[in-house]
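Hi there, hope your week has been kind to you so far. It would help a lot if you went through both lines with me. No rush at all, and the record is pasted right below:

***
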Amino acid sequence: MKKLVYIILFLLLISCSSQTVQQENQNYVFDLIETDTVSVVQKDTVLIETIKEEEFETPAYYMVQIGAFSSENRAKKFAEKSRKLLNEEVIISFSDRINLYLVQLAKRFENKSEAEIVRDNLKLFPEFQDAWIVTIK
């Protein structure tokens, strides 16, 4: 009886090893792809990634806005008072989109955190409690 069990086990082992050898000789789908095709796929993938990065461009710069007025005269008065109080260059521009005269510090910030520091320091003055950051694209 023991001999019969050993013979069956031996036959099973032989049959498993022959299947393994046959499987190693099979071609897989990826083995049949030419290398030129692979490089084209990789180029397309890189192109798609590049387009996605361009969609999320960072803004050109940030500015600190200290006021917005409907009248040019009020904007000029506030800008002059701010120049004297802060000893900083202040600019006035008109926004067609919102139909207001904007009073902003002339300094442009490439980094939003730098603009936030300046805005927070301005808020220590009662005149500039409403200062905010504008993103310019």
Summary: The mean pLDDT is 75.
